[in-house]
Amino acid sequence: MTGFDAHARNPATTWAALAAEAGADVNTRFGHRLMGIPGTWIGALEAGAAEGPDAHLPSGRRRRTDTRQRPWSQWHYWWQSHYLDSIIDAAFQALSQADRITARAALRQARQLLRGILIRNFGVFPNYYFDDMAWLALAAGRLNALSVRLEARSSPLALHAVKTLTKQLHGAHDSVVGGGIYWSRKRDFKNTPANGPAALHFARMGESDTAGAIVGWLRAELFDPETGLYLDGIHPSATGRDVERTVYTYNQGPILAALLKLGRPQDLTDATALIEAVGRGLHTPGQGLRLEPGGDGSLFTGILCRYLALAAQDLRLPARSRETASTMVLETAARLGGEPPAQLSAAVQRWTVLAAAASL
Q1: Can you point out the beta strands (E) in the chain?
Q2: pTM (two decimals)
Q3: 10 Å Cβ neighbour count for 35?
Q4: Handedness of CA 330, 335, 336, 342 (dihedral sign)
Q5: Residue 45 domain-assigned?
Q6: Using an 8 Å Cβ cutoff, are 302 and 350 in contact?
Q7: What are the φ/ψ torsions at residue 184 (nearest 5 degrees)?
Q8: Cα separations (Å) of 302 from 46, 244, 311?
Q9: How far is CA 6 from the centre of its chain?
Q10: How many domains does the chain have?
Q11: For the segment 194-214, what is each residue's pLDDT rounded down to a tens digit?
Q12: Which of 14, 82, 250, 260 has the least CB density, counted as fewest CB within 10 Å?
């Protein structure tokens, strides 16, 4: 995959082709049946871990005999959630092109991945981290919507995931430091990575009061008026509040989407301001958004691009803000050429960013 000139405003079909190429790369180099179980799918954490004597075959026909695919090796639950979201992106992109065959294949793979996540997580959806659960709740909700769209019926497993994870998120929400949900079951830190996607999930579920309360709490406790961006988190302490002031790209994305989903006049005003703040603080003109380092960090900018693309298409926002959001996504997509990433998180991020560009 080579770089691309975002300023040329190439047709979305070109971005769609690049996104499809990136998706095929992820599925071929990382995807495999979990423990060889039919009807399951999972992403290996490193490229090559899914290789073996059948590597030349299409991914769905390979035997997974490589010893590196031990079932209880290192586990990154939330990476798989974003892999699931990217598969669903591909399905909706196919539907936008009236390609129901490709969309149905993606739906089938998404169901297999959700089943693989369940089995790999020891047969349950709850996890130690509430941000992990919020990300999977979002993806599972989209999977159910895709099933309804394609087959006029819900997905029982996706609905089970949504119901289970929503209950967990409700249980993490209390009045300590004014509100918000905890990051983990240790219940000693409330952060934007958990509250942003949880607010978006509640908004999508129609629980506007809960979503609005979380968005309001984020604004009161973790919004930095100097930059217009959201800080990382807050520790309850004897003095009341110890704030972690690091600014991450991905923290801005789900808050932006939650504001748009809530859609009240002030929410739309805040969404507009947040897009402009991202443009000032996290974007370099002509080069795109800041790319974060590391395994988890390799997903961060993709998450922001996913939700900037939604904003870019929201006609309730000013044209200037929509253009800013679009430009940031396209410029970032243009940087993601070169050699395919060796790690699942980075490969999924590339797929996510290109799919976001294709949607514009």
Answers
A1: 31-32, 42-43, 190-191, 223-224, 229-230, 233-235, 242-244, 283-284, 288-289
A2: 0.92
A3: 15
A4: negative
A5: no
A6: yes
A7: -145, 175
A8: 18, 23, 14
A9: 22
A10: 1
A11: 999 999 999 999 999 999 999
A12: 14
